[in-house]
Amino acid sequence: MANRTVKDAKSIHGTNPQYLVEKIIRSRIYDSKYWKEECFALTAELLVDKAMELRFVGGVYGGNIKPTPFLCLTLKMLQIQPEKDIVVEFIKNEEFKYVRALGAFYMRLTGSSLDCYKYLEPLYNDNRKLRRQSRQAQFEIVHMDEFIDELLREERVCDVILPRIQKRHVLEESNELEAKISALEDDLDEEIELEEENKYELVEEKPKEKKDRERKRERSRSRERHRSRSKERHKKEKDKERDRDREKERERERRDREKERTREKDREKDRDRKEKDRKRERHH
Fold first, then answer.
1. Which pLDDT tens digit goes with each residue over 100-142?
2. pTM (2 d.p.)
3. Which of 5, 50, 171, 282 could form a disulfide with 176 if both were Cys (CB 3.0 to 4.6 A apart)?
4. Whole-angstrom Cα distance, residue 171 to residue 266?
5. Closest Cα partner for 82 from 4, 163, 3, 6?
6. Dihedral angle, C-alpha 183, 188, 191, 196, nearest 10 °
């Protein structure tokens, strides 16, 4: 009974909500110690307290596929199907970042395309750090906005296959969603305005300031010329050194060849001398 979906639960994407998590992972969750001890008889109100205790996000880990508490609570939410208002409160929770991450993950699994963009995109402004446990049971740091971006773009997050959602531009073209406005747009507009003002604003420089600026510019050019000459000199020295090394190598090879010829001549002389000695011995 504890592993069944509540009786009055609505089907999500045409199926039992719990079936959004693959069967093998569901079985591992049902068998896990955290599920049996911490998730038994949880209600939507009690689930908030458990979510506040979360210290990292993640899916499954280890060779025997153990589920993280984050994934166990996600399945519990799919099982009890809390009201949408409760999920929205999870997402709006600014004090507990893992509660927000849990609410965002559940909304991505169960919400419509419109709801996903409506409630998750504002979280791009949240750049707090999250700890995430990898499949190898190692922890890494991600930011909330990265996690949200993965939810909206990736096919699988925390080892759960995400339902497909419509592309944003499709919802914009059908006037269901307003055009996305970047949080940086206001800053960019201010910078452009300042650049325009500086372009048309005439400021007379004092003779001393002008001379100082020209002197600094001349020093900078002089340093650049000096660096350029130094680089050129260094390059020439390297080339010369390389040429010397090659010349030495060629000279060494030439001497080796000369020595080899000399040895060959000595061997031939030695053979001739031995041959003469043998002939002389035969005559005698």
1. 999 999 999 999 999 999 999 999 999 999 999 999 989 999 9
2. 0.64
3. 171
4. 95
5. 6
6. -140
